[in-house]
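Retry 2 of 3 after timeout on previous attempt. Resubmitting structure tokens to design endpoint.
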């Protein structure tokens, strides 16, 4: 949902990986992020966390900018 607000035309190439990883059961899907936090038997590797950070950071920065420019 956030990606549709910050890049409605899917034109920002920096967000391609975030878009791909947030679909279905990708690493940024709600299901997987929830399991990282709430399931004791899920153990993400450092590479998983590094990848999530690299993909998630540009999206969060653009979302922060969008929210600053579009207060409700």
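Retry 2 succeeded. Sequence:
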């Amino acid at each position: 949902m956030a990606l549709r607000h910050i890049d409605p035309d899917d034109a920002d190439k920096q967000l391609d990986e975030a878009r791909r990883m947030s679909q279905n059961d990708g690493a940024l899907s709600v299901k997987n992020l929830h399991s990282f936090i709430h399931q004791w038997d899920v153990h993400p590797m450092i590479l998983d966390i590094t990848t999530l950070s690299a993909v998630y950071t540009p999206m969060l920065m653009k979302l922060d900018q969008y929210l600053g420019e579009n207060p409700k």
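Attempt log closed. The radius of gyration is 13 Å.
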